[in-house]
Amino acid sequence: MTLTAGKLILAKDYIYGPADPDVAAYIAAVETADGQGLEEEVKAAYSNFITGCKADGIWNAIKASCILAGARTLDGALVSLVGTAPTKFGTAANWNYNRKTGLQGDGSTNYLDSNRNNNADPQNSNHNSVYVSTAQSPGSTGFYMDSGSNGTGANNFGRSAISVNLFLRNRCDTGTTIASGAAIGFMGHSRNQSNQYVFRVTGSNTTVGIASQLPANGTLTLFARTLFYSDARIAFYSIGESLDLALLDTRVSTLISDLGAAI
Question: Cα–Cα–Cα angle for 175, 181, 187, nearest 5°?
Fold first, then answer.
């Protein structure tokens, strides 16, 4: 056992390291960006997430992702877990980063460009997800993730100011609403069929029976679509091919919980 910050940590919790090259590379990159080392418990949380996703068989479906929590600095949080790192736009001073709960948009100018095109994944094999720590304020429409606006082959989800519900699209121009606008936690959609996709929020799946369209050409952004900026706080996002949302939900929710306990 090891005494850390006044609490005992069992040796079994220290499972990160060079045995998994993706774990080792990610931790090294975050620490380099931070300019200092991470706590052992934070590294263990990262390791458990990566190796857990591999054990679940969902890791290879994730093509672009960031853990927007845990790192000591915003630069560290924007290190790519998978794929190309995002680019931040807007007013530098307006970014509000919290190690436990993630990155908050300012609702007016700031957003992240994921640098992954919506059409990079197959028409009928695609997922987008986020972990929302603080929901979009009900007084305005805000996008958690978006590409293609409401046009053909669009992908997006967020909260509507009009209905205060969640709205969503996956490879389609037909919007769907779900009465969980104030929901926090893991949410996302995944399509592996031409005639329907699945949206997950508050630990439950909803099947949306809408046919797919050729994916819109445009990079996926977080916190914004033109003129619609979000003040939500997001601690994780992923983009890629279709996967089991329930498995990803379990892994991401555990990760954010473990990071909160570690810091």
Answer: 75
